[in-house]
Amino acid sequence: MAAVSGDGREIEIRGESVSSWLGFLNDTRLTIGTRLEITEENHDALAALPETDPRAGLFQVYDWLTFLQESMVQGLLAER
User: Fold this and answer.
1) How far apart are CA 33 and CA 3, in angstroms?
2) Nearest Cα to 59, choosing from 78, 41, 37, 26?
3) What percentage of residues in the chain have a pLDDT greater than 70?
4) Distance CA 13, CA 1 (A)
5) Can you give the pTM of this predicted structure?
6) Which of 3, 20, 56, 78 would disulfide-bridge 49, Cβ 3.0–4.6 Å?
7) Greatest Cα pair distance in the chain
8) Rounded to an integer, what distance in angstroms lies between the CA atom of residue 36 and that of residue 25?
């Protein structure tokens, strides 16, 4: 199972670690999403926040975790 990081490097995660990492990514995203009150309707507005907005950095972390989670799921699906 492989996941790609944001800078293009490939990271390999195997065995029981995969479900643990997916659980961590999901739980962390849900926590951040709840704190930022992210919805489908306001996602794009939050993505466009200026860097001076205190929520901007947290949204960037949320977006990066989403990318990592999606990469891991795609890696799992490709193995099937």
Assistant:
1) 22
2) 37
3) 92
4) 6
5) 0.84
6) 56
7) 44
8) 16
Query: Token pair 């704190």 is at which residue?
Result: 35
Give yes or no for a contact between 37 and 62, defined as CB atoms under 8 angstroms apart: no
Distance CA 2, CA 11 (A): 6
Beta bridge partners of 4: 10
Report which residue type is found at 49.
L
| For residue 52, pLDDT beyond 70 | yes
Is pLDDT at 10 greater than 90 in this prediction? no
CB count in 10 Å sphere of residue 4: 16
State the average pLDDT over residues 75-79: 83
Residue 71 is which amino acid? S
Tokens coding 71: 């990469």
CA-based nearest residue to 71, from 28, 17, 18: 18
